[in-house]
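Hi support team,

I've been running sequence recovery on a batch of backbones for a student project. Most finish fine, but this one hangs at about 90% for roughly twenty minutes before it completes. I'm not sure whether the input is malformed or the queue is just slow. I've pasted the structure tokens below so you can try to reproduce it. Let me know if you need the job ID as well.

Thanks,
M.K.
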């Protein structure tokens, strides 16, 4: 099973990252457009789980299998550093953009 998982690690990583961004966008839509706290919280948890947990698990399994820090692990580390630093600024900009679009649509 580990061999199969490691052979598909890049598609799994990309799929989880894409799903996390979709969940993040839905989180903001639920917050501003739908104005539902329950959907906002669910989307936030889903974005967090799909955005961090699979990445960390894949990095650990990759290290367990190959016993070295390779490009895949370095990429995940850089992705995590980006998410915790510049990603916050990017999310703030996306948050403001969606909030302003929703306000514009409601006032039209």
């Amino acid at each position: 099973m580990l061999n199969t998982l490691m052979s598909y690690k890049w598609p799994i990583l990309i799929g989880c990252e894409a799903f996390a961004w979709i969940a993040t966008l839905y989180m903001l839509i639920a917050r501003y457009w739908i104005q539902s706290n329950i959907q906002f919280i669910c989307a936030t948890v889903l974005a967090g789980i799909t955005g961090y947990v699979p990445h960390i698990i894949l990095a650990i399994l990759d290290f367990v299998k190959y016993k070295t820090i390779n490009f895949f692990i370095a990429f995940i580390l850089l992705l995590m550093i980006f998410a915790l630093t510049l990603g916050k600024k990017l999310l703030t900009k996306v948050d403001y953009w969606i909030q302003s679009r929703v306000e514009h649509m409601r006032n039209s």
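--
Follow-up from support: It reproduced on our side and the slowdown came from queue contention, not your input. The radius of gyration is 17 Å. No action needed from you.
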